Input
Amino acid sequence: MSTEVRVPALGESVTEATVATWFKKPGDAVEVDEMLCELETDKVTVEVPSPVAGTLGEVVVAEGETVSPDALLATISEGAPSAGAEDVRPREVETTAKAESAQPSGHVDIPVPSLGESVTEATVATWYKKVGDTVAADEMIAELETDKVSVEVPAPQSGTISKIHIAEGETVSAGGILAQMAAEGGAASAAPTAEPAAAATPPSESGSAKDIENAPSANKMMAEKGIDPASVKGSGRDGRIMKEDVMNASSTSAPAPAASAAPRAPVSADDANREERVKMTRLRQTIARRLKDAQNTAAMLTTFNEVDMKAVMDLRNTYKAEFEKKHGVRLGFMSFFTKACVHALKEVPEVNAEIDGTDIVYKNFVHMGVAAGTPTGLVVPVIRDADQMSFAEIEKAIGEKGRKARDGKLSMAEMQGGTFTISNGGVYGSLMSSPILNPPQSGILGMHKIQDRPVVINGEIVIRPMMYLALSYDHRVVDGKGAVTFLVRVKEALEDPQRLLMDL
Output
């Protein structure tokens, strides 16, 4: 039986990749999830694992050739490989096979669940169970943190936790083994003896580390930037250094001299005793890096306006009871702002566009990002095709994403693909701010606190509920005229909501 090996998902807006390296040749034995080859795109390096165990058959695409997503790369003959192929099986695969065969009967490994595209490692944030505890099938036993989302680890079946390989705060690679459990009714003993931390040492730290081949793109970048490979921590399989690792190392190494040249001012022993030093979570590190990247990459400007919220508030008060009774969801302000932004994006499409290399990509749809604060940091779930939704559908979608965000249950897919973002700092009391872009988007609208202020209407001073609006935009794509026009259209739609119904 033959199994096809195809190009995996390459990421949003990536349409092709180049085969950089084949790590196996026809006739070689391969194990499930063993890396076969490596692809390079203009954004990331992608590893291609084997979907089955068997023997590598025909290699359809040679090194240096270009392929599209889902294109056929090679074939694998399933089943026992030939004797010749068995001889060339890598040493670490043999070791793994021996370890698996030596595993006591009744024991079940607890692996790292799928972390999502381009995520190669995670940190164990919390163990909810300890060695010796009994668990039910699908009961949550641990929580992992990646640089994008939190991932829950369920028990694969009922039984007893017998060993924990990765302690809290330690890092584990995608596909790694977190712990071991004795299956319910299994013959193996579930003695409460924790696995020492040394057992989690990856193969890359053993004597065979020098046999591990780094990503070609990583070697090239290290050579160009003069970076010592020993100073770069690899996130690839078995500690292989990937292109992203070099980029992270180069970005963090630049400010290092300044930091060492100007250390923090000495503090008294009394002050030091009252300080608390907490390591940043992977999510917080990613938020910090992405926000700084946005400032460094985009030509970011912010334009301001203010909106009289009386019409929206009156309309909401008039219909909110009927709305909730019919649709089962409360009528909030976010659906009005989403509808107003969708309306304005149709007139000023560059605010809904993005730069890709030397191209500007205009989106003929609106995937609305809604920034949400969580206990672990800011996340931006995406409401897909918001331009096709009713007020009730928008409110339901925002409510669902908000609950998932607070519970740490957002998937990577739910935070990808946004074309424009709304951020509501008003819920925290912010009166005015300048929001930062969410790359690669070209615009973000900042909402703020509604505050009664005196304004002049028809020559008279009246008190109205006013809100400041801020649009931050990428000046490389959006001109000042377009940015101001967009914000004025949002203002007009909110001050006269009937315009949304009339498409004016």
Q: What stands out?
A: Residues 81-102, 187-210, 254-261 have pLDDT under 50 and may be disordered. The longest helix spans residues 310-327.
